[in-house]
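Thread: quick sanity check before group meeting

JM: Hey all, I'm pulling together slides for Thursday and realized we never actually wrote out the predicted structure for the chain we discussed last week. Dropping the sequence here so it's in one place. If anyone has concerns about the input, flag it before I start.
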Amino acid sequence: MGIELIVALGSLAVGAGSAIASNTAQKKAAGAQEKIQGEQKAQNAAQAASERRSQVREERVRRARVMQSSENTGVGESSGEFGALGTLGTNLAVNMGSNAGKLAASERTSGYAQDAANFMGQAQRSDKLFNLSASIFSNSGGFNSIFGSSGAGGVTEATRTGRLPGTS
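JM (edit): ok, ran it. Output follows.
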């Protein structure tokens, strides 16, 4: 019984140590994923700002062209010029709103991916804890240590014969 006990205790120690190391590594991985998410948010925000500047610049150029064209043709400050300028402003606002929506959707998607990774890590830790506790339970005698091995409790007899005690 001596060597079996030493092997069982050694395996439990290795199992516990690996579970602790795994848990630590998963926490570090979750932290790294959060850093990645932060970088992605910053990159998306920078790209959205660049697109906004580009759209504003483009709208200003178009506005200047419309105003210059109106002046060149002698219809400056006409309803046609005001309508064209209004359309440019509306289009700019629509584009900026669309970009803001895309940025928000990207951030939500990134957040959901982070949540999924965190939940997966929690599930893996729970699974490892279950396996460790099942191993400890099994190595400490399992149900035999609770119900005894005489067969009076019915667990070992049912396992051995495939029938419940007292049945033919």
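AS: nice. The two ends are 36 Å apart (CA to CA). DSSP finds four helices and no strands in the chain.
JM: adding both to the slides.
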